[in-house]
Specification:
alpha/beta, 3-stranded parallel beta sheet, 10 helices, elongated
Length: 288
């Protein structure tokens, strides 16, 4: 998925009384660097100017349309979801227009590499493979693991000692199995071919708890398939070694100013309380 980055950008920068637009496909050059090149003095720069991200009139996001509640097309075909509203909140923070387009999952990162989009906000995890073609903002959503048990089941402290001897179901070969094997060795770990089979076993009383991805468990608990049988217990468990570094917004490698701009906007969206409002809006059960 690694492609040559040939992006087309237009940055609005104020230099004295003129407006300079840079349209090209290489590294972005700051005003301070241009001034230094003109005078032959590259050290006489303003550190405040260097650290300030560029102003953007439009931020072109791409996302995928079938990952509810993060990003999806509703019954009327309107793009909505947590990621979509977060993108709009970020644009609002930097006074930019949001252009959000739907692409297939496999086309999201290549669109950034080709310069067809500025950023992808679709639940991408920060991985070594993805970092070969794009950069990422700060993480905005952690991928937590959780335990779930029947609402009427016996309550135990969700610790290695508290689950001594308890039957815990988990998908075979998953990161969740590896975590249980490492830290919950006193439990009776029951392996299933899929996470869905482990949940079925929980509903049937064949196991006491199930350990899985927290988001998947929330969707299951709040959906019809669970028949309102179960609830989350303990946690969350956020160890990146097992469960990843979390979700982040993918941005071009050669556009560090955009990464700075979005990171700054993410901080303000969190501090204003808007981020928590979106979490409560799209996730009925608290994930963390």
């Amino acid at each position: 998925m690694v492609r040559d980055i040939k992006s087309r950008r237009c940055n609005l920068l104020v230099l004295l009384v003129g407006i300079l637009c840079l349209i090209g496909g290489g590294d972005r050059v700051s005003l301070a660097q241009q001034a230094g090149g003109a005078t032959g003095n590259s050290t006489s720069t303003d550190s405040t100017t260097q650290a300030r991200p560029d102003r953007r009139l439009v931020i072109r996001f791409v996302t995928e349309g079938d990952f509810p509640p993060f990003n999806y097309l509703d019954d009327e075909g309107v793009l909505t979801g947590f990621n979509v509203d977060l993108a709009r909140a970020l644009c609002l923070e930097v006074n930019a227009t949001c252009d959000i387009q739907v692409r297939s999952w496999d086309e999201l990162l290549p669109a950034i590499s080709r310069g067809d989009a500025d950023a992808a906000i679709a639940g991408h995890l920060v991985t070594a493979k993805a970092l070969k073609s794009v950069n990422f903002t700060d993480r905005y959503f952690q991928t937590a693991a959780r335990f779930a048990a029947k609402r009427t089941g016996a309550r135990s402290e969700i610790t290695p000692d508290g689950l001594d001897g308890r039957r815990v179901g988990v998908a075979k070969g998953s990161a969740h199995e590896a975590y249980l094997t490492a830290f919950f060795q006193l439990s009776s770990i029951q392996l299933f071919d899929t996470a869905e089979l482990a949940r079925d076993a929980l509903m049937q009383g064949k196991i006491d708890l199930v350990f899985d991805d927290g988001i998947s468990l929330v969707f299951w608990i709040n959906g019809t398939a669970s028949k309102e049988c179960c609830e989350l217990r303990g946690g969350p468990f956020l160890e990146p070694r097992y469960f990843g570094e979390g979700m982040a917004i993918a941005v071009p490698k050669l556009d560090p100013d955009l990464r700075i701009l979005l990171n700054s906007a993410l901080k303000r969206v969190r501090s204003s309380g808007r981020f928590d409002e979106l979490v409560q809006q799209y996730f009925r059960t608290r994930l963390y």
